[in-house]
Amino acid sequence: xxxxxxxxxxxxxxxxxxxxxKGEGFDCLALSFSYGQRHSLELDAAKxxxxxxxxxxxxxxxxxxxxxxxxxxxxxxxxxxxxLEEMGSDIPVTYVPARNTIFLACALGWAEVTGARDIFLxxxxxxxxxxxxxxxxxxxxxxxxxxLGTKAGxxxxxxxxxxPLIRMTKKEIVARGLELGVDxxxxxxxxxxxxxPLACGxxxxxxxxxxxxxxxxxxxxxxxx
Length: 225
Fold this sequence. Notes:
Strand content: 5-15%
Oligomer: single chain
CATH architecture: 3-Layer(aba) Sandwich
CATH superfamily: HUPs
Radius of gyration: 17 Å
Shape: globular
Number of strands: 5
CATH topology: Rossmann fold
Strand order of the largest sheet: 3-2-1-4-5
Helix content: 25-40%
Order of helices and strands: EHEHEHEHHEHH
């Protein structure tokens, strides 16, 4: 089987992406990041998901708190109760500067070392919170850079960045994940969970997730405050 590096955050998008990569016949290596985020619950979720899917997982330590500038890595309040129709209209403070570029660069390095030529990332350009590094043109640009700036690319064995969710709604993502047997009760989406752990139900990530399950007529298995 061909090898692929799959970025696994522990959220529902990355879990569905891992299931898709497995379903397409890839031998998956899951890569997670401890980057100074507000909580470690998503890393616990990533470990559980990797075990469920039977894939090797590595957690790389980066401290993006040194840069700050985001509600996820510094003492900036997480926005709550934003109208759904406003999401995607601006770039919110939960955007982490250059995060996907940094994560993809690390995934690229690991892929080159392990012989993988495929990288999977669960970004989404429809139901999302306005992040510029989730757009198709960004992914295309990174893939071009990857094939220009690596030994493997220079020798003609280039890389492909797969984004199977990029043109799907959250409803479609949940439906696809359920088809593939993803246990969404194991995933963590909330930006600002309470002890328990309990999702806040009010941040952008919770609002989009709750709407997706509601549109499918399904109950979200996550535990909410």
